[in-house]
Specification:
- With 519 residues, the chain is of the alpha/beta class.
- The chain folds into 4 domains: 250 residues, Vaccinia Virus protein VP39 (Rossmann fold); 42 residues, no CATH class; 104 residues, Trna Endonuclease, Chain: A, domain 1 (3-Layer(aba) Sandwich), CATH 3.40.1350; 101 residues, Sandwich (Immunoglobulin-like), CATH 2.60.40.
- The protein contains 14 helices and 28 strands.
- The strands form 7 sheets. It has a 9-stranded mixed sheet with strand order 10-4-5-3-2-11-12-1-13, sandwiched between helices. The protein has a 5-stranded mixed sheet with strand order 15-16-17-18-19, with helices on both faces.
- Helix 7 crosses helix 8.
- The longest helix has 19 residues.
- The protein is globular, with a radius of gyration of 30 Å.
- 32% of the residues are buried.
- It binds S-adenosylmethionine.
- The site of S-adenosylmethionine has 20 residues, from helix 3 and strand 12.
Length: 519
């Protein structure tokens, strides 16, 4: 189980947080901060635009006609917050970041789950900035609902002291005592604390404090905000969990403060951005030679990586992923690689597995006196399916043919081709089009293209980066009079990269059947 790895590594999990949270043991986490997509318009909520995030967005809004949109949103949140409550330690804390859209509905929901008495604060994060609002007061704050898991919840008040107001300091004499002997109506409160006052529930923290911190998407939260939460409600070595990790601000703050972290997100882009920020932190701050390793789990396997795996390792991996028990004996196993509920399994690390494999497997079943069996392979031929059907019709064997990508998530490289070319009227440049096809039909939402032309192996004469949504198609111009070696590379939502290379000159363009002229 992945959670056990948190003892050794920080973890980033690519998954729907509901699924991931279900795998976290009860009462095992010290602090949870979550900044879920708000109950607001589509544009603001879809940040990354990739497959995982869009799927989650649709879940959140897919309500039956009898439910209002806000009820659907709260029901979506509630089953997740129930899990978060379960995984928090008795001493743990929970911070839910929201805004005016649904904070009142969320408060009622959290009171139900955590208990009204465990509510600690409604923190107002106030972020001053320019505003053009004409018909209401400008909205300049978010709300963070802070709940304790129980009355034994840790709170480090001394860790979150901030400077006193100027007006208070003006009343202090050189010995640190208040000059007038009064403080908030009480006589002689003694010296002020040299570390400042404990922060109250209104936090004035600028949005993002530096260009260096800014990663360029609208919902990024400032590090200073997360640092305050983590310092107040956890200690070094504690586990901090963010189930909507986004750009990874919580993970970054936790790592800087010596806490362990688990970040979950359903968007590959979010996971990749977070990985990058953690890596940059490790590279930039050599003082922390002992940074904890961070591992990302749940990303799909690439077809190439599975295909190249050691065959015995692959068999064991697939049988386990299928929920079976692998054979101890790997050589001379009689064609059987494992067993699930008494049914033998055979694993083939190949594509287009044919009729002969099904026949041989039925012979192996006969030897062990079994009538049911399962073969798992990348793909099967029609002959294999027909043979399995024939054996079943004859009442002899029931053999299931299972595609490996239904057992583990597999991604193949996109197939890229450099296709049509169009020559300009003055014959000075060529317009080239490249096209990518996703063999897994994953409904890829963003393709990252990189096109490069080289004269020799080293001289880059043109290059271009583009993001394309639909269709997976890129156009680029080649302005060069000598033949150039063009390489078009497309990377899909899952980080799988495919490419195609072609040497192209004006003559080739004229030979291309799709050639046309442009002005
Ligand atoms: C508002 S952003 C979080 C921003 C983050 N606090 C930061 O400072 O960078 C919300 C994130 O939740 C993710 N998300 C939405 N639904 C999810 C789900 N069901 N499981 C996991 N992540 C989800 C989105 O992909 C998005 O990255």
């Amino acid at each position: 189980m992945w959670f056990e790895q948190i003892a050794k590594k920080n973890l980033l999990i690519y998954d729907d947080n509901l699924e991931a949270l279900r795998q976290v043991p009860s009462e095992s986490v010290d602090l949870i901060y979550l900044d879920p997509p708000f109950f607001s318009g589509r544009d603001y909520n879809v940040i990354w635009g990739d497959t995982g995030e869009v799927r989650s967005f649709q879940d959140r809004w897919a309500g039956g006609s009898e439910k209002t949109a806000v009820e659907v949103y709260i029901a979506w949140m509630e089953e997740r917050v129930q899990e978060m409550h379960r995984v928090l330690k008795e001493t743990g804390s929970f911070y839910l970041h929201c805004d005016w859209h649904a904070s009142h509905y969320l408060k009622v929901m959290c009171d139900r789950i955590f208990g009204y008495n465990n509510f600690r604060n409604e923190i107002v994060w106030h972020y001053p900035s320019m505003s053009a609002a004409k018909y209401s007061f400008p909205r300049k704050h978010d709300v963070i609902l802070f709940y304790a898991r129980s009355e034994n919840c840790h709170f480090n008040a001394d860790e979150v002291r901030i400077p006193y107001e100027e007006s208070t300091l003006g009343r202090v004499s050189s010995d640190g005592l208040l000059k007038d002997g009064y403080f908030k109506g009480r006589k002689n409160p003694g010296a002020l604390n040299k570390n400042g006052k404990i922060a109250d529930s209104v936090w004035r923290i600028p949005h993002i404090s530096s260009q260096q911190e800014r990663i360029g998407y609208p919902t990024q939260k400032p590090l200073a905000l997360l640092e305050r939460i983590i310092k107040a409600s956890s200690n070094e070595g504690d586990i901090v969990l963010d189930p909507f990790v986004g750009g990874g601000t919580t993970c970054l703050a936790a790592e800087k403060l010596g806490r362990k972290f688990i970040g979950i997100d359903q968007s590959i882009a979010a996971i990749k951005v977070t990985e990058g920020r953690i890596e940059d932190l490790h590279n930039s701050d050599k003082l922390f030679a002992e940074w904890r390793e961070c591992e990302t789990l749940g990303l799909p396997y690439s077809f190439a990586e599975l295909n190249e795996m050691n065959p015995f390792e692959y068999e064991t991996f697939i049988v386990k992923a299928f929920g079976g028990e692998p054979n101890k004996k790997q050589i001379g196993d009689g064609g059987l690689d494992g067993m699930k509920d008494g049914v033998p399994i055979q694993v083939k690390q190949s594509e287009r597995v044919g009729r002969n494999v099904v026949d041989n497997f039925s012979a192996a079943l006969r030897r062990v006196k079994k009538t049911k069996g399962t073969i798992i392979a990348f793909s099967f031929t029609r002959g294999a399916h027909n043979e399995a059907a024939r054996l079943q019709n004859e009442g002899e064997f029931e053999i299931d043919l299972i595609a490996a990508n239904t057992v583990v998530s597999i991604n193949r490289r996109p197939k890229v081709s450099i296709g049509e070319m169009t020559v300009s009227e003055d014959k000075k440049w060529i317009l080239i089009r490249a096209h990518a096809v996703d063999p897994e039909q994953n409904k890829i939402t963003v393709w990252n293209w990189y096109v490069e032309g080289r004269l020799k192996d080293t001289d880059v004469v043109c290059q271009r980066k583009v993001k394309n949504r639909d269709p997976a198609y890129s156009e680029f111009e080649l302005r060069y009079d000598r033949p150039v070696k063009v390489r078009a590379t497309a990377t899909d939502d899952f980080g799988m990269t495919g490419w195609s290379e072609k040497k192209i000159g004006l003559d080739d363009a004229y030979r291309s059947p799709s050639v046309a002229r442009v002005n």
